[in-house]
Amino acid sequence: MPSVLTMGSTILCGLAAPKLHGGSVTKIGTPKLIVAGKQVVLLTGLSSVKVCTTAPPPASQKPCTSVTSITKGQSTKLFVGGVSVLLDTLSGVTDGVPPGPLWVTANQAKLTAI
To answer: pTM above the 0.85 mark?
Structure first.
């Protein structure tokens, strides 16, 4: 069963070649559900991408600055205030050129959901 994402989880914009991506996705947790001392991240809790740590891209490419879509990884059974919590099966893309896939590690195994 997938693990729930918390403020202690890692969400990066892709690690694929060329090594253009790797920025950290900004998360916003909810104080209404705490797991191992960390706030849980909801579907509405993904924001911008902190500056990518790689070298400036070639002129035809653009580093990612935000998550543009989430294609999977939202719980269908666990909600906080009517909003799905995010799971470590999270998948989506950023606005980088080429678009960067999301890379996720939950960093906790106390709470799982579907």
So the answer is: yes
